[in-house]
TrEMBL record:
GO terms for cellular component: cytoplasm. The gene is argA. CDD domains: AAK_NAGS-ABP, NAT_SF. It comes from the Bacteria. It is found in: Cytoplasm. Gene3D superfamilies: 3.40.630.30, Acetylglutamate kinase-like. In bacteria which possess the bifunctional enzyme ornithine acetyltransferase/N-acetylglutamate synthase (ArgJ), ArgA fulfills an anaplerotic role. It catalyses: L-glutamate + acetyl-CoA = N-acetyl-L-glutamate + CoA + H(+). Belongs to the acetyltransferase family. ArgA subfamily. This is Amino-acid acetyltransferase. Pathway: Amino-acid biosynthesis; L-arginine biosynthesis; N(2)-acetyl-L-ornithine from L-glutamate: step 1/4. It is an enzyme of class 2 (transferase). One of its GO terms (molecular function) is L-glutamate N-acetyltransferase activity.
Length: 442
């Protein structure tokens, strides 16, 4: 939001909209990877201040910086040869010396910026610890297709316990793209591979890459905002020949990370000032989000699902959370339902009832099986029915609830009066239930 002048009402509105995300991100583990180009940019202090802000809000941060331009500058100064094969540097003795210097210089610069506490800094009044160390064990990449990569290596193991101990102490952890062997050798690592390995070992909640390019776009020229793993694989297969080798490798690594247990991987244009905050604290974000959904499918309900939906919602009806529906009524309304199926079992559902005359839709019957709660499934279904509403040309969605007001408010719904609801829905309103109405603009 820097560079944008906000009046007081705009600022208050933005801050209120960001507050649910502040709560959602607290005590979560994020791995943030950024390039050496980002470190060299004049705006880099802004990025570091944004990272410090995340830490002050309770986010457990692991940073993985690259150092390619810093290494190349040192090689050029010494007249050494710069050699790449398949996007990977061949690291001879001269290159390794430059890698050590560059990585050390980047580490010191980041630590210095994170340690700032002067009065004219955005970090004023907040002190933080920065921890770095030999967290990554590596082995040589060796000879591949007849090419000896010498001191270029690959990740062998991540000391996740040591990283967790630093995070538990409140420190920001800095993991450089260097790896160490039991025999004392040092290897130059691909920073993105380090980020993937660290995120997987920590079971990080998010892995965020700040790239030196804008997000990939679809055939209509619109940036991809959210892709499942299956969708990302399909797009990568379609575009592989057109993508630069490094970008294709990054996308494949992101897909593999999702399949390996990282629930969300974000690809951002790191050149955009404030991209990290805009991605994490606004509803739609500014980058591309890859998400994993193992063994689960979200789809429109059919008549065959009536029994499963009834079994799912019956306890909530008995508890008064949901309005009671007969089997006959549900059979006539099943086309409005979306279900989440896991290995043949309906574990969650939600419904969208359109009121096209008013360009509004009612979100109803959001339910998740008790064994599968607290893992974001209700939010997944809510987003799905909101997308359905947009695709149908609806401008707003509303919900009537007696127990889950805060949950909907945290997802962008605002209190509204009954007079703002469609006429047909007002006529069916049950005053005995005294449900509260909430509205969201799409």
């Amino acid at each position: 939001m820097r560079g944008i002048v906000l009046d007081s009402s705009d600022y208050v509105r933005w801050f209120r909209q960001s507050s649910p995300y502040i709560n959602a991100h607290r005590e979560r583990t994020f791995v943030v990877a950024f390039s050496g180009e980002a470190v060299a940019a004049p705006s880099f202090p802004n990025l570091v201040h944004d990272l410090a802000l995340l830490s002050s809000l309770g986010v457990r941060l692991v940073l993985v910086p690259g150092a390619r331009p810093q290494v190349e500058r040192r090689l050029q100064e010494r007249g050494a040869e710069i050699r790449y094969v398949n996007g990977l540097r061949i690291t001879d003795e001269a290159a390794l010396a430059c890698v050590k210097e560059a990585v050390g210089s980047v580490r010191v610069e980041i630590e210095a910026l994170l340690s700032m506490g002067v009065a004219n800094s955005p970090m004023a009044g907040f002190r933080m610890q920065v921890a770095s160390g030999n967290f990554v064990a590596a082995r040589p990449l060796g000879v591949r297709d007849g090419v000896d990569y010498e001191h270029t290596g690959e990740v062998r193991r991540v000391d996740e316990q040591a990283i967790r101990e630093r995070l538990d102490s409140g420190a920001v952890v800095l993991v450089s793209p260097l790896g160490y062997s039991p025999t004392g050798e040092v290897f130059n690592l691909y920073a993105e591979d380090v980020a993937f390995a660290v995120a997987r070992e920590l079971n990080a909640d998010k892995l965020l890459f700040l790239l030196e390019r804008e997000p990939l776009k679809d055939d209509r020229g619109e940036p991809w905002r959210e892709l499942t793993v299956a969708e990302a694989e399909a797009q990568l297969a379609r575009l592989r020949d057109a993508l630069p080798a490094e970008l294709g490798r990054l996308w494949q690594g992101a897909i593999d990370a999702c399949r390996g247990g990282v629930p969300r991987v974000h690809l951002l244009d790191g050149r955009q000032d404030g991209a990290l905050l805009l991605e994490l604290f606004t509803r739609d974000g500014v980058g591309t989000l890859l998400t994993a959904n193992p063994f689960e499918t979200t789809r429109r309900a059919t008549l065959d699902d009536v029994g499963g939906v009834l079994e799912l919602i019956r306890p909530l009806e008995q508890d008064g959370v949901l309005v009671r529906r007969s089997r006959e009524l549900l059979e006539t309304e099943i086309e409005h339902f979306t279900v989440l199926e896991r290995d043949g079992m309906i574990v969650a559902c939600a419904a969208l009832y359109p009121h096209r005359a008013e360009m509004m839709g009612e979100v109803a019957c959001v339910a998740v099986h008790p064994d599968y709660q607290r893992h974001g499934r209700a939010e997944l279904l809510l987003k799905q029915v909101e997308r359905q509403a947009r695709s149908q040309g609806l401008a707003q969605v509303f919900v009537l609830t007696t127990r889950t007001a805060h949950w909907f408010q945290e997802r962008g719904y605002s209190t509204t009066g009954l007079d703002q609801l469609p006429v047909a829905r007002r006529e069916l309103y049950n005053y005995k239930r005294n449900s509260k109405a909430f509205l969201k603009n799409l």
